[in-house]
Amino acid sequence: MATSLEKGKGVIHSDDRRSADSFFWDEGTEEEEARGQLMPIGRIWAQKSIKVKAAIETMIKLWNTLKPIIGNVINAKEKMFVFRFGTMRDKDRVLENQSWHFGKFVWCFNEPTSTGKLTDIPLFHLPLWARVYDLPISGRKNEGNVRKIRVMLGTYINMELRPNPEMDRAIRVLILHDIRIPLKKMIKILMPTGKEVCFDVKYERLPTFCYGYGRLGHGEKDCKEGPYEEDELKFGE
């Protein structure tokens, strides 16, 4: 005889194969939801061994928040952790001032979800300020030009608005970079004359970085694509 599975009551269908091994995960209380909004999940990207607990304690002291923060390790092997902030103001200030480094290794953060495992939350996007140098004076305020530049570099977050950008050496944009792919050291732009010109890109406050392959999270000595000769370090030294 078939029975019904009622949400939250744990009654299992006798004729539903999924129900034989699973049950509905009920949503938490409003208090739990509110606490969850103060709890970003994070990961340290480093090929080397890191003492995650020590890193958490160091960052809590560095942030110097108005109210105490609680930090805990979720997965030591994957260098994953969770923080619980005392106020939304403290949490927003810390996340808005990324990127954060520990031992020159990058930290990536994301919001928790209730749709699966904590260890499945994507933790590979990092806000970075990028500067594009030597651009033509005319066209720096053109929104279409800026949009194309930011699309080439990553997901756009913000742009530094200056009164006279034509007087600056570079334009400055804040992007969300996927650290699984190499950074771009230059971008190619097609000029009105039809000529393709390369423009240098530099990034601010970079953590441990591979000058051979262009990826964050390891140095050229630890790169799987290496070893590199000095003249093979495409991104400098």
List the helices and strands and how they pair.
Elements: H1 30-36, E1 41-45, H2 52-63, E2 70-75, E3 80-84, H3 88-96, E4 101-102, E5 105-110, E6 125-133, H4 143-153, E7 155-159, E8 170-178, E9 186-190, E10 196-203
Antiparallel strand pairs: 1-3, 1-5, 2-3, 4-5, 6-8, 6-10, 7-8, 9-10
Question: Can you tell me the CATH class of the largest domain?
Answer: Alpha Beta
Tell me what the CATH architecture of the largest domain is.
Answer: 2-Layer Sandwich
Q: How widely separated are the two ends?
A: 72 Å
Helix content: 10-25%
Describe the biggest sheet?
5 strands, antiparallel
Q: How do the SSEs run, as a string of H and E?
A: HEHEEHEEEHEEEE
Beta-strand percent range: 25-35%
Q: Could you tell me the radius of gyration in angstroms?
A: 23 Å
| Spatial strand order of the main sheet | 2-3-1-5-4
Q: Which class do the helix and strand fractions yield?
A: alpha+beta
Tell me the total number of β-strands: 10
- Total domain modules: 3
Question: CATH fold name of the largest domain, please?
Answer: Alpha-Beta Plaits
Approximate shape:
globular
Mean pLDDT: 80
Low-confidence stretches: 1-15
Q: Which superfamily, in CATH terms, is the homologous superfamily of the largest domain?
A: RRM (RNA recognition motif) domain
- The count of helical stretches stands at 4
